[in-house]
Amino acid sequence: MSAMSGRTVLVTGGTGGIGLATAAGLAGLGARVGIVGRDRARAEAAAERVRATGGRVDVFTADVSSQREVRRLAQEVLAAYARLDVLVNNVGGFWATQHTTEDGLERTFAINHLAPFLLTNLLLPRLRASAPARVVTVSSGAQAMGRIDFDDLQGERSYSGQRAYNQSKLANVMFTYELARRLERSGVTANTLHPGVVRTGFGQEDSGGWMRVMLPLVRPFMKSPARGAETSVYLASSPDVADVSGRYFANSRPRSSSRASRDAAAAARLWQVSMDLVGLPVDDGA
Questions:
Q1: At what angle do helices 115-129 and 161-182 cross, to 10 degrees?
Q2: Fewest 10 Å CB contacts: which of 10, 97, 146, 215?
Q3: Strand runs labelled E in the chain
Q4: What does DSSP say about strands 32-37 and 56-61: parallel, antiparallel, or unpaired?
Q5: Can you list the alpha helix ranges (DSSP code H) found in 33-160?
């Protein structure tokens, strides 16, 4: 029997790059995989690529910059899947210039942090009911340069694409650590990872001058999407990490994340601020 036979996995940002490679890898291990993409035609094409290798794939579409769309997505996933064994929060992006979402939020923070935060919370009852289950969130080595500016989370005073990205990737790690704390003894684990520097279309929609100059120079040294997905697949499937939670990984090994990411009080504060920004009832941390 395959390692993931009988398991159901949802992968956000699953239509290309690391997300598609993650979906393909888990489908190859026998999982039923749901991929989430913004564009239906692109998502269907990605699903066909995985199905061609014998994988079982479902398609969901949502623009996760919109909290309304994230809520609709969660309802569709809950209706489609009686059980959910793994959620891979892979969606993310980089924008050099500032954009505002329909919810009035800065796009990088909204997509990279608040979308996985909201989706995870909406799917958590199903994950708990399916335990043992796992939440895997793709962060970045950029978390080490991140700082959570609680006085200017949305970059309203001053905006830098790199600073916004670094902050959002640090938020991914802090979210994971706080989630793991809340999920202790629930049978649901939460881990986060740095996939490495991978050859994808990441950041090309609005890359800024620095990235346009650097990308052609470093591209030959970047990982393939399949290699970039290895740690996500490992955390989603390996029995070696069945009981590991609240850790940061790179190259399928636990690593130390930044000192800022390990600030438990700041992580708890970020959780409560995020609850407020996505319109979920603020709780007591139980």
A1: 20
A2: 97
A3: 8-12, 32-37, 56-61, 86-89, 133-138, 188-194, 248-250, 253-255
A4: parallel
A5: 40-51, 67-80, 107-109, 115-129
Q: Which two tokens stand for residue 178?
A: 């706080």
Dihedral sign for Cα atoms in the order 182, 187, 188, 190: positive
The residue whose two tokens read 């902050």 is 167
Tell me, what DSSP letter sits at residue 198? B
Sheet holding 248-250, edge to edge: 56-61, 32-37, 8-12, 86-89, 133-138, 188-194, 248-250, 253-255
Cα separation, 37 vs 20, whole angstroms = 10
Is residue 192 classed as helix, strand or coil in its secondary structure? strand
DSSP-derived letter for residue 112 is: I
Cβ atoms < 10 Å from Cβ of 74: 20
Rounded to a whole number, what is the largest CA-CA distance in the chain?
A: 55
Distance CA 168, CA 19 (A): 18
* Distance between CA atoms of residues 39 and 63, nearest Å: 8
Q: CA dist 111 to 9, 74, 218, 253, Å?
A: 20, 15, 26, 26
Amino acid, single-letter form, for residue 208: G
| Residues labelled as active-site residues | 165
Q: Is 106 helix (H, G, I), strand (E, B) or coil?
A: strand
Task: Collapse the DSSP code of 37 into the 3-class scheme (helix H, G, I; strand E, B; otherwise coil) and give the result.
Answer: strand
Measured from the Cβ of residue 23, the count of other Cβ atoms closer than 10 Å reads 32
